[in-house]
Structure formats: C-alpha cells, structure tokens
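Subject: two folds for Thursday's group meeting

Dear M.,

Sorry for the delay on this. The cluster queue was jammed most of the week, so I only got both jobs back this morning. I'm pasting them in the order they finished. Each block is the input sequence followed by the predicted structure tokens. Could you check whether the formatting survives your parser before we put anything on slides? The first protein is the one we discussed after the seminar.
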Amino acid sequence: MSRHGADFARPRPTRETTPNLAPMVDVVMVILIFFMLGTSFAAREGVLSMQLPADVGPGGGATVTISPAVRISLQPAEGGAGVRLAIEGRPLAGHGFDDLYRYLKGQIDRGADPRGRVVLAVDPTVRYKHVIATFNACARAGFENVQFALSSADRAADVSDGRS
C-alpha cells in the first residue's frame, strides 16, 4: 500500500470560523447608553428653560410701556364723619364711592391695565369702613393689584424699632 497519494491529499473543507460578535455588541450598547445618559441631563450654559405665553409681551421691535400706579388718597372730612377722596392729588369730582367706582371703571374702559397698581394712601384717622369701601370700589372696577401706601411716619417708626 502506497501512501504516496495520502500526503498530498487536499484537506477537506472545514466550516468557516467568524469572530463572536456578542461581546462587541454588548460593549457598543454600554457606550451608547453612557452617551445617551450623559447628554440628556446636560443643560447648555446660560439657558433657562421656561414657558412663556405666546400672546403677550413685546414682539420684535415693540416698545414696552410701564403704566404708572394710580394713587388714591383718603383724608378725613370736616368733622371726621366722612372721607375726602383724591386721585393723583386732585379731589374726586363726586364725593362718594360710587363716583370713585365710575372713575376707575372709566379708566379700565379707556384701556388701563387691570393688573396695574392702585395705591391707597390712607390717613391714620380715616375710619376703616371708608378704607374697605375704597378697596371694594377698586375691586369692583376690575383692578387686581390694590396696595396700601406706607406713610413716612410708619416708615420712621419701623426704622426706629429695627424692623426695616
């Protein structure tokens, strides 16, 4: 028996071997998750996220006007039973709270901002019922931001008490 042909025999085709891709896919997924988590929480510097209403505020090139506060003064009337009302230092045409309501309602009807400030400067000797009636007239007219002015005597007392 001759082995002459056995030494030069062609090797039988074997199954092709390919690299195992499972570890590579695992590594790629871990890197992908790392970058996704790292970028989703990073906010750009100088950017604040907020929700602003689209229908208000100045547009491009619009001017912003700041409406001044309406100042209503309450002083005791002669004899102390009533009250004298003055708006921006001018006495009110009528003397009642209905006249004040009509004046303020007219301001709203002419385009005054209902969220604009109304400041009540009340003399300390004015009866409380007059202060409440004035406040109610402002609210009935549609003003939402009614404030009370702090008198200079009150401010001086706060400073001397250390409450400033």
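Second protein, same layout:
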Amino acid sequence: MNSVNYQFELYGENSLLITDIRMHVKQESLPVDERKKFKVRLSSMKNDHILNYLGSLDHVFTYLKNIDSDTSTNVLTIQQFAEQNISSRSCLHENIFRQQPFSTIYLKYIVDLYELLEEITFDQVLGSYIPNEYCEKSFLESDRIKIINEFIKSTYAKQTISNVLKQPERWIALLKRIIVRILLNINVSSDVPLQLYLERADLWTGDVTENDIQSFSISNDILLRHTFIILNGLKAQQTKSNSDSNEENIEKSIQNVHEQTKQAINWNEATENDAGSIRVIKDDKKSKQKTKKLRV
C-alpha cells in the first residue's frame, strides 16, 4: 500500500501550510450539494488514486502558500492555478487537469476539498492499516472506557463548550484528520498530549474560531496514541444514539397508530350514536305530521 507522506510540521502555527493558504486565499466551504457529489465521486476511486490525489493537493499547497494575497486568485480553478504556477506537473493527479468536476474546482474551496479527501482516505484506505499499538487490543478495556468517557465529558458534552463544537460529527472528522496527518507520520512521537493537536487551528475546519478552540481542554493524560480508540468510541456512541433515536421514533409511531386507531373507534361509535338519534327525530316528525293530517 502507498503511504501518505505528510509535510506538516508539528509545532509553529506560522509554518503550517493550511494556515498559510487561509491567509493568502480566502476559503469557503463547498456548497452542500456539490460536496455530496464530490464525496460520491471520490469514494468510487481506487485506493491508489485517492492517495495520489491527496499527494497532488499537498504539492499544490506548497505553491499556494507563496502567492500574493489577491481577490482575483479566488476565481481561479485548481487546474488554472497549476498551469500558471507549477512548471513540473508530473506528480499531479490527472483529476486536477483533465477530469471534471475536480479540474474546475475554485481555489477558494481547496481546503474543504482537501479535508473531505482526508476523511475518505481514512475511511477507505488508512483506517484498515492502523498499527496494532494504537488499536483496542493494546489497551485494557477499563482504560479505554475511562479515556473515551473523559474525552467526551471534556469536549462536546461539556456544558460551557462553544455551540459550534457540540456536534459529535465534528470531533469524529477532526480525529480522522489527526490520524491521517499526524499519527501515521513515522517522525511523530505518539506519547505527547493530544491537547497539543486539538489546539491547532489548521486541523479544524475554517468556521471554527480561536475562541471556539479555547472553550475546551482535555487532560494531558490523554495522548496522541489514544486517538484511534477515542475515534472508535465516539463512532460507537453515535451509532448507539442513532439506534436509540430510531427505536424511539418507531415507538412513537406505534403509539401514534394505537392512538389514531383508538380515536377512530371512538369517533365511529360517536357517529353511530348521533346517526341513531337523528333517525329517531325524523321518525318522530313524520309520525307527528301523519297524526296532524289524520285530524284534518
């Protein structure tokens, strides 16, 4: 399997590529419908192509960070930028140049595209090749449960955390990025506090502010090596929540059916009684009219 060679440095915010790009080229999130389409297309690619595409965007990033900030840059597509600024394009994946819709993506969406590609890289490629030392079997069950629960309590379940960070999905996506960019880098120590990476703005999506990041803090006993077991713990919690929610909706539906059935029975019974009363009244009127005619 091809490896993903990440070029990001561990510390020093000014030296991080994504941070530099956000400073030079104003970034936006892909439109929701477009993001869904890209996800389907990327998920259908072969593993080698996914890794090559990720590496190609890495290469484009090294050029993007050096351009002068200019509003006209935002309207360039990735293909146009590469043609104008990268002389040697042999290491760039063909999607950047030839295949739509990827070749026509604007630079203002490149970071969001990159983050989407990282998540797909984890889900379809790297998630199955996590070293044993980071997997569940390397930890006692009691330790795993403690780490996962403490992480949840200190992050999205924390009452005072920023509203933006209260969705478990954000944390799941973040942990995937950390695994792809950081944990699987052979030059990185896995025995450092995970908090050091949770504080890095480049690992968060562009809509998360510094104030948001400062609204939480996790114990220094939770280390980078724990990232994968925390990710699996969060995914299990989410699956359980979705299952509980589905069961609750099913139970409500059953209750609604029972209630509607009961209401229908009551209504029918009431209708029958009312109809009977009406018939009696009509009969009385007719009998009175007949009596009146006889007297005349």
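Two things I noticed about the second structure. DSSP finds ten helices and no strands in the chain. Residues 1-15, 277-296 have pLDDT under 50 and may be disordered.

Cheers,
T.
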